[in-house]
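debug: dumping io for the single-chain case to check the tokenizer round-trip. Nothing else runs in this session.
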Amino acid sequence: VRERLTDTRIKEVNQAPRGEKPEPRPEPDWTPLNRPRIDILKEVRDKPFYYPPKPMITTPENRSVHKHCDYHETHGHKTENCLSLKFFIEDQIKKGNMGQYIARRTT
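debug: decoded output
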């Protein structure tokens, strides 16, 4: 029987003991791309399937001012590391909108 996670239980699962860093979640196997995500973003911003990301959860005061995300259009992390952008690109590839950005294997 799968346990139904309440908000409290989710926080317990996601939090590490005091003083310890939580274990990083493994990232999905992203589709290999033939160019950097920032270049793809620049090319698809005016396409009808493009949609902007949800706002970042972290408050601006708690984000790195030394890193900028072009997808979120604010500071906090680098565009190439943006999970929202990675999921957006994956979603659009699956929908057939961005197949031209998939890296082709050479054997």
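debug: round-trip ok. The longest strand covers residues 64-69.
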